[in-house]
Design a protein that fits this description.
Number of strands: 5
Strand order of the largest sheet: 3-4-5
Structural class: mainly alpha
Radius of gyration: 25 Å
Distance between the termini: 36 Å
Subcellular location: Basolateral cell membrane
Number of domains: 2
GO molecular function, one term: transmembrane transporter activity
Membrane topology: Multi-pass membrane protein
Family: Belongs to the major facilitator superfamily. Monocarboxylate porter (TC 2.A.1.13) family.
Shape: globular
Keywords: Cell membrane, Membrane, Transmembrane, Transmembrane helix
Strand content: 5-15%
Helix content: over 70%
Largest sheet: 3 strands, antiparallel
Length: about 475
């Protein structure tokens, strides 16, 4: 059994978890980005247009995010190690089967659905494990772990191109399939850890004398088909399943979920249309490709430096606002992009957008953990990445339709910018409303002599001591109706 820790160790084996998550992001997100390098080869071999070929990348991205809750479910009920190893086998099988493809429909299923499902089983559980091992240096740990996407893209892109030239696209996919098997090694590194916080939500009937101690010992020797055991198991399973996703009803998480939808819609099209836009304003092919390289490299710097900065004492309490600032800055960059019509102006754009893109990607798990707590982080991240799926699938085609309709990229970039700014503004207003409510309750506390307590899940409890028949009677009321009067 895993040793129980009072709080995350913030080091030790945790750095091996960070290394494992770093490699997971390389094998999942970086490999997904490199699939676009195969587009020209797929078009030439199968004789299809760009629109049909582009669905391969969209299906991989969508399947990875859409099946993220499944990865969290397997991680919670079986183990993180088994989930990531299974995902590595599925993703590798998808890439290997794709090397034998005879049609685009074959690639949709093998490279799109099967590989995307494998990536989904690995991505969110690995990220959640970092949150279980780190607290004080959580943002820095996530910055290092998530930088694998940028570093992997920077390294794998030329390597994949070289593999295609040497072994054709079939050989390159076969070699990538072998490379992705490293996810099984990552899974082996994910040693489980038991935190005391994980055991605070035990069912009440386990804490009380639901079954006498002597009977509990006897139950171990009874048949598994015993009606008592079946009833107990069913109640325990239903309770635990609900406790895993009870954060869905938290107002703070609901607001975060809506903001994630708009943020995901705004960030996706730019990576697809930056190079075409640069070519449309007269930038050379070499310079346009260089803009994407800048985005990848600066994305790494944003991952690590912003994570380190937000772990400093002066900013640690304001990481939520740092996340809002990063998302808002990327939105502003998109709004100004239509007036940047030459290479010297597009280079600063790539630096700025790439830095803040890496910054808010690092802080997504941190902000989610602050909202739902560490014990629910794996399930919550599964839902958060699930919410990325539909925007990732829909936003590039919508942006392309706007380009075809208007004849320019202006409407597409403006829609992306306003979407990200709205995401940031929504969270900001929600944060301010929560702060105003807390200040209002504190003022009531000062006026009525109420003693106020802030619960770890964000609920506000306050006790009022009143004099009744010369006796002190204490009433406990909870702001979110999570607890009854005691």
């Amino acid at each position: 059994a895993s040793p129980r820790h009072a709080e995350p160790p913030d080091g030790g084996w945790g750095w091996m978890i960070v290394a494992g998550c770093f490699l997971v992001t390389i094998c999942t997100r970086a490999v997904t980005r490199c699939i676009s390098i195969f587009f020209v080869e797929f078009q030439a071999y199968f004789g299809q247009d760009y629109a049909r070929t582009a669905w391969i990348h969209s299906i991989v991205d969508c399947a990875t995010m859409l099946c993220a809750p499944l990865g969290s479910l397997i991680s919670n009920h079986v183990s993180c190690q088994v989930g990531i190893m299974l995902g590595g086998l599925l993703a590798s099988a998808g890439l290997i089967l794709s090397s034998f493809a005879t049609s685009l429909e074959h690639l949709y299923l093998s490279l799109g659905v099967l590989t995307g499902l494998g990536f989904a089983l690995c991505y969110s559980p690995a990220i959640a494990m970092v949150g279980k091992y780190f607290n004080k240096r959580k943002a820095l740990a996530y910055g290092i772990a998530m930088s694998g996407s940028g570093i992997g893209t920077f390294i794998l892109a030329p390597v994949v191109q070289l593999l295609i030239e040497q072994f054709s696209w079939r050989g390159a996919l076969l070699i990538l399939g072998g490379f992705v098997l490293n996810l099984c090694v990552c899974g082996a590194l994910m040693r489980p850890i038991a935190l005391k916080e994980d055991h605070k939500t035990a069912p009440e009937f386990l804490e009380k004398d639901y079954v006498p101690k002597a009977q509990k010992r006897d139950l171990k020797q009874m048949s598994i088909c015993s009606p008592l055991i079946k009833a107990w198991s069913r109640e325990c399973l239903c309770y635990c399943s609900w406790k895993e996703y009870d954060f869905l009803l938290m107002p703070g998480f609901m607001v975060l979920a809506v903001s994630i939808l708009f943020m995901a819609y705004g960030c996706s099209p730019l990576f697809v249309y930056l190079v075409p836009y640069a070519l449309s304003v007269g930038v050379s092919h070499h310079q346009a490709a260089f803009l994407m390289s800048i985005l990848g490299v600066i994305d790494i710097i944003g991952n690590v430096t912003f994570g380190w900065l937000t772990d400093r004492r002066c900013l640690k309490k304001h990481r939520h606002y740092c996340y809002l600032f990063a998302v808002g800055m990327d939105g502003l960059c998109c709004l100004f992009l239509p007036i940047l019509r030459n290479f010297p102006l597009l280079v600063p754009f790539s630096f700025t957008f790439g830095y803040f893109d890496g910054a808010y990607v690092t802080l997504i798990p941190v902000v989610t953990a602050d909202v739902v707590g560490t014990s629910s982080l794996s399930s919550a991240l599964g839902v958060v990445y699930f919410l990325h799926a539909i925007p990732y699938l829909v936003s590039p085609p919508v942006a392309g339709w706007l380009v075809d309709t208007t004849g320019s990229y202006t409407a597409s970039f403006l829609l992306c910018g306003f979407s990200m700014i709205f995401s940031s503004t929504l969270l900001c207003f929600a944060r301010l409303a929560k702060k105003i409510k807390r200040m209002h309750l504190q003022s009531l506390t000062n006026d009525t002599g109420t003693k106020q307590h802030i619960w770890t899940n964000g609920a506000i409890a306050y006790s009022v001591t009143a004099e009744l028949d010369q006796k002190d009677v204490e009433f406990l009321a909870v702001d979110t109706n999570s607890y009854s009067n005691r």
